[in-house]
Amino acid sequence: xxxxxxxxxxxxxxLRAGEHLTRGPNELYALSPRPIxxxxxxxxxxxxxxxxxxxxxxxxxxxLNVSRNGMLALGGAAVWVMLFFIFVWASAVFMVFYGxxxxxxxxxxxxxxxxxxxxxxxxxxxxxxxxxRGSAPVRFHRQRREVAFVVERPGRxxxxxxxxxxxxxxxxxxxxxxxxxxxxxxxxGLGGEMHMFDRQGIALMATAHLVILPALAIGYVLFYRWVxxxxxxxxxxxxxxxxxxVAVATRNMAVTVGGPAGLGWELHxxxxxxxRPGYSLAGAGVSAGMTGLQMAMMQWELIRRYMxxxxxxxxxxxxxxxxxxxxxxxxxxxxxxxxEGKPFWRYRLKCxxxxxxxxxxxxxYRVKHVLPKASxxxxxxxxxxxxxxxxxxxxxxALTELTRQVEAAYERGETFLDLGPVEERFGQPSxxxxxxxxxxxxxxxx
Length: 446
Prior knowledge:
The protein has helices spanning 68-98, 103-133, 166-188, 199-230, 293-309, 323-340, 344-353, 356-370, 397-411, 416-419, 422-425, and strands at 5-7, 20-23, 26-30, 52-55, 59-62, 138-141, 146-153, 234-241, 246-256, 259-270, 286-290, 441-443. By secondary structure, the protein is an alpha+beta fold.
C-alpha cells in the first residue's frame, strides 16, 4: 500500500498518524497522534535538532537549543568587522599625515567605529539570549504519560508593536549606536577638523546615549507588558495526554524567479485544542529545522522511545559544543592533517576566522546558564516528581493494539511511509474528530 497523498481542502483538519497532505510544492506528514513506532526509517532515534535539554527517570525537557554553527557564522562576521575597522584605522592614520586630520580626529573616528561595531557584536549575542530565555520549555512526564505545554491565552488586540519586533528593535538600535558613534567622534575631534558639537552638545549626546535611550527601551518593554496584561493576555501551563500530542513534519517551498527553492523540513510538536479539533493551542509547542523527513522522524522517535521505553532509550546528547570538545577536535584534526601530509595551519586559520574557540565557549555558556532560565524556578515542580511504579499510567488498549499491528507490518517489509493513515489502515476508529473538554491547566509562575 502506498502513502495516501491528498490535497488539503480545509484549514483545520484533525490530523492522525500517517496522513500525508500536500498543497502545491509543500508537504506535511503527521507522525502522531497516536505515538506509534516509526520503524527502521527512524531507527532508534537521535536528537537531530538538539532539542533535549535535560532528562531523568521521570521527565524530559525540550527547548529550542543553541547551535554552535550559528556562533561560528557570527564569529566569521565579527572577524570581517574587525578587519574593516583595521582598514578604517589605517585610513584615519593616512589622513593624519596627508589629509590635515589631527590625532584626535583619527582616534575619534576609530574609537566611534570600534564602539559601534562592539555594540553590534554584543547585540547579536544578546538578542538570541533573550529569545532563548523567552522560549517556553515543553516537559514530558513518562510516568504520568502527560506533557506540559506553556500556552499563551490571547486577550484583546493590542495595537502596539512588540518590543522584539525587528523594525522596532532595529530603529532603537540604530539611534543607540549612532549616538555613541557621534559622541566618541565629536569628543576625539574637539579642536580639529572633525569638530561637530561643542562640549555642551557632546554632553547632551552622551546623556541621550547612556541614559535616555536605555530608559526609553526599558520603559517601553514594561509599558507593553502592562498593556498586554490589561488586555487579558496570560500564560498558563496545560497538561496534555501523551497520546494526544501532535507531531508533524513539514516541508515549505518558496517559488523564485529561477524556480522553486527548498526551505527544508521542520518538526513541530504541538498540543491540540481539544475543543476545536484540527487546531493547536495558541503560542505553545516547539519547532525545529531538520535537513530531511528522515531526520524529523528520528527526532520524534527519540522522544517516543523515551516515553514508551524509558530514559535508556534516549542517550545523552553529543558534547559537540564545549571548550573541551573543541580542544579534542583540534588535536584530532592535527593528527589527521599530519597523517595526510596536509598543512594544519590552514585549518587553524579557518577556525580563527570563525572564532571557533569563542563559539564553543559561548555555546557552552548558553547551554549551562541561559537555557535553564527559560523555565522559572519551581515550574510544575510537584507535577514533575517521580511516581511509585504502581501509580504509573499505562498505554491505552487502542495504542497497544495499533502498535502491535504496525510492528507486524514492519516485519513484513513495509515502512511508515507505506502505511498511510494508520488508524484507517488497521480499522481503528479515529479519536480526534469530536470536541472534548479542555485539558487541565495551571497558572504560569510570575
